């Protein structure tokens, strides 16, 4: 199982502990997303930064769509299935996404792939970035995060 974390709020007014946590998660800018494994360490970081990010459990279809559309290699080149076949044991982006959801692979298993995925702002907006889900965009979305990520791809 994997989580996706999306930075919703900017840099103003961030306490030092929260800024360090966001730095460890590699969430440097608004609308950046990272895929993190489900373990107690990352869950603790997500809970600590919940007032600045939206996070939830990712499914393989959404992850594959996000990797296909927005994942970048070094040199700002898009991730392609040909690159995956030539440089990894995976034959398709869907197969990589399913392995990542199962916990058998990570983004760093693909050489040259950037760990941060830059997303667009969501269509129709966040619905407020000062309150927690379901009233706003912050905090734990659970499985509903897939809808937000779809709107951002």
Order of helices and strands: EHEHEHEEHHEEH
Overall morphology: globular
The CATH superfamily label of the largest domain reads: Ribosomal protein L30/L7
Estimate the strand proportion.
15-25%
Q: How much helix, percentage-wise, in residues?
A: 25-40%
The helix/strand class is alpha+beta
> Would you count the extended β strands for me?
7
Please, how many helices?
Answer: 6
What does this structure look like?
The protein has 153 residues and is of the alpha+beta class. It has 2 domains: 2-59 and 117-152, Ribosomal Protein L30, Chain: A (2-Layer Sandwich); 60-109, Ribosomal protein L30/L7, central domain (3-methyladenine DNA Glycosylase II, Chain A, domain 3, Orthogonal Bundle). 35% of the residues lie in helices and 18% in strands. The protein has helices spanning 16-24, 40-48, 60-70, 81-87, 93-102, 145-152, and strands at residues 2-7, 32-37, 53-57, 72-73, 77-78, 117-118, 139-142. The protein has a 5-stranded mixed beta sheet with strand order 6-2-1-3-7, with helices on both faces. It has a two-stranded antiparallel sheet with strand order 4-5. A hairpin with a 3-residue loop joins strand 4 and strand 5. Helix 3 crosses helix 5. It is globular and about 45 Å long. It starts with a strand and ends with a helix. The mean pLDDT is 92.
Secondary structure elements and their pairing?
Elements: E1 2-7, H1 16-24, E2 32-37, H2 40-48, E3 53-57, H3 60-70, E4 72-73, E5 77-78, H4 81-87, H5 93-102, E6 117-118, E7 139-142, H6 145-152
Parallel strand pairs: 3-7
Antiparallel strand pairs: 1-2, 1-3, 2-6, 4-5
Helix pairs in contact: 3-5
């Amino acid at each position: 199982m994997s989580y996706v974390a999306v930075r919703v709020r900017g840099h103003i007014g961030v306490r030092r502990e929260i800024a360090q946590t966001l730095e460890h998660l590699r969430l440097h800018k608004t609308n950046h997303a990272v895929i993190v494994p489900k373990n107690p360490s990352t869950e603790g970081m997500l809970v600590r930064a919940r007032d600045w990010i939206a996070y939830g459990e990712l499914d393989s279809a959404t992850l594959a769509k996000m990797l296909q559309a927005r994942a970048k290699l070094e040199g700002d080149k898009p991730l392609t299935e040909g690159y995956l076949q030539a440089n990894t044991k995976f034959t398709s982006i869907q197969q990589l996404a399913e392995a990542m959801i199962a916990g058998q692979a990570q983004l760093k298993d693909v050489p040259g792939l950037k760990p941060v995925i830059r997303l667009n702002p969501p269509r129709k907006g966040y619905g407020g970035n000062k309150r927690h889900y379901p009233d706003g965009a912050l905090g734990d979305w659970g499985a509903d995060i897939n809808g937000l990520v779809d709107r951002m791809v």
